[in-house]
Design brief:
The protein is of the alpha+beta class. The protein has two domains: 174 residues, no CATH class; 58 residues. The protein is 41% helix and 14% strand. The chain contains ten helices and nine strands. The strands form three sheets. Strands 1-7-2-5-6 form a five-stranded antiparallel β-sheet. Strands 3-4 form a two-stranded antiparallel ribbon. A two-stranded antiparallel ribbon has the order 8-9. Strand 8 and strand 9 form a beta hairpin. It is globular, with a radius of gyration of 22 Å.
Length: 279
């Protein structure tokens, strides 16, 4: 039987590598074609004005830096763990290294800064533990904040800070993309996996439930077919009404989702829709 530690490590690795996917078709190039004398401040403002974002309360723009093929990370991991190539026809997508967000006035939004763990592996040739990565990302966020402090109203300072971030990891403009957002709060949002912290704790936990979850159980199982799903949702609604508590349901079943007062759709790790009934 495979050791629990190895199962959890493999799961954590999958969570790490699921972050940072980017679909090139959803973004615009950050290339010299639309850039005059390295004036990034003017370019980003022009893109937002072109799409009439500056009139929206929560409008803004995100810039994705140093986009690369995930194949690079796979090669690093194969070498590190001495894994032989497979004969499978694997399709490798693209990842971004880090994303910087700005509001419609080009004020930097530090809390939305996102650095992918795939990029960490690519840059440092090692898989980070949770504590080391969080410390690294916090320090990087502080550095970005200092670089862009007070730059929104000064094109010269803004362009200087932008150039600094390009040089930080030797990023070329051809490997960067930008995306105009109607709402920086709901569009293009990137989140680290919620599960990694729990998976780390599970390494130090030994219960019957955890063993049953990882290795399977021999007892009777009930499939969540349409009938059972309906009964479970009805039961949850009953608890919701009785205790007046918010109920969050994660599902792939659209019929179940449509029963909710608010629906948040996630696609490729990002929020793609946020709708509330009656609004």
């Amino acid at each position: 039987m495979i050791e629990k530690e190895k199962i959890l490590e493999a799961w954590i690795m999958v969570e790490h590598l699921s972050e940072g996917d980017i679909r090139i078709k959803d973004t615009s190039p950050l290339t010299p074609d639309g850039l005059q004398e390295q004036d990034f401040h003017a370019l980003l403002r022009h893109e937002m004005e072109k799409k009439k974002i500056t009139s929206k309360k929560n409008g803004g723009i995100v810039v994705y830096f140093d986009i690369f093929s995930f194949r690079e990370v796979v090669s690093i991991l194969r070498e590190q763990y001495r894994l032989e190539p497979t004969n499978e026809d694997i399709q490798f997508g693209n990842k971004f290294s880090f994303a910087l967000y700005f509001d419609k006035d080009l004020n930097f939004l530090p809390d939305m800064t996102f650095f992918t763990e795939s990029a960490y592996i690519r840059y440092f040739k090692e898989v980070p533990n949770q504590e080391a990565f969080r410390e690294f990302e916090d320090e990087l966020k502080q550095s970005f904040t200092q670089d862009f402090d007070g730059t929104a109203a000064s094109p010269k300072k803004f362009n200087g800070a932008f150039q600094k971030e390009l040089q930080r990891y030797g990023t070329g403009l051809k490997n960067c993309r930008m995306q105009v957002l109607s709402s920086v709060e709901t569009e293009g949002t990137n989140l680290h996996s919620f599960f990694i912290g729990d998976l780390e704790k599970a390494k130090e936990t030994d219960t019957d439930n955890l063993r049953a979850y990882l290795y399977g159980q021999s007892g009777e199982r009930v499939n969540l077919d349409s009938k059972n799903s309906t009964e479970i949702i009805s039961l949850l609604k009953l608890f919701h009404r009785a205790y007046q508590q918010t109920l969050i349901v994660i599902t792939h079943d659209e019929n179940i989702a449509l029963q909710a007062d608010r629906i948040i759709s996630i696609e490729d790790g990002r929020i793609s829709r946020d709708e509330t009934k009656g609004r």
